[in-house]
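Reviewer 2 asked us to include a model.

Predict the structure of this chain.
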Amino acid sequence: MDFSTFCIHGNNEKHDRTGAVSVPIFQTATFAHPGVEQSTGYDYSRLQNPTREHLEKTVAKLEDGTDAMAFSSGMSAIATLMELFSPGDHIIASDDLYGGSHRLFRSISEKNGINFSFVNTSHISQIESHINPQTKAVFIETPTNPMMQVTDISAVSKLTKRHGVLLIVDNTFLTPYYQKPLQLGADIVTHSGTKFLGGHNDTLAGFLVVSDNDLSEKLRFIYKTTGACLSPLDSWLLIRGIKTLAVRMDKQQQNALQIARWLLSQEKVKAVHYVGLPTHPDHKISKKQATGFGAMISFATDSEETARQVLERVTLIQYAESLGGVESLITYPILQTHADVPKAVLEAKGINEKLLRLSVGLESAEDLICDLKQALEGQH
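Predicted model (structure tokens):
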């Protein structure tokens, strides 16, 4: 079955007899038992709910996993993931991470006794040089947020398997439509479902996906104990969003490539970070492990004044956090998504007052370019 068809019909389990085409929203906290020591298969919505189960089975199949857990946000998924580890454990993570992940690791996980090494995971040697007897996992984003660096998942997987270490991949930017980390050797895939999977900037969600039964059992236990599960209504919104995932991603990628090429020609733009450009240093690795490049662009302007001017003057593109929705959004990482990351760390990665991040939506590429053009030139 083609991926686009699978997004719509991949999970055809029915929970009612009405013939409803849309999955019902089982808006209930609890389920009645038929009798003592009897169950319908559902007992309490924190443990499982038919609407959420439908979503989880769909996402598991899309990622070629055996189990997926749907959370109330991407950060709640990663926070639950961190409960796999104990005080004294060591994790190697990409040094160009979404600011929320960095904040969680530095402010919460380290407080709980977990140690981190942040390295450029695009360089396998940097990962290997930081592995020690306490290392339990390598956590990567690829492409990274916001500098769009790509890590060779298969190469890292060979390394982690040799050392008995888990490989965790945040697949938010490319989704299973363009990249399947489990096929490439990852142990756990995480998503902010708020982004491309949901696709409409209307709800928060997160996912963990695994193909190992032991990992599934451990994570399910933490999941039901800590309780950050996705609500039935939000589960339904994600089910609906995923139905158009393939067609959205293709159009957004097409728009992004056109915009990235245009940005390259602009005098006030000094660098364009988009994996789909052949000039991107990781373009070949991306082509090897993914079937697409996504719709995320970061670009550096010639000055802080220009960056702020763009944010003030865009009209069609909205100055807002988040990404992956049908509406194009532009963000200022240094003040928004990465505000809690130490400035020295940001500067080392090129995340400064000149950098903007653009999530390309489904509007006309020509209209988006016109909006960027007038914003850069300072003329409405």
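Residues 64 and 182 are 7 Å apart (CA to CA). The longest helix spans residues 245-264. We have added this to the supplementary material.
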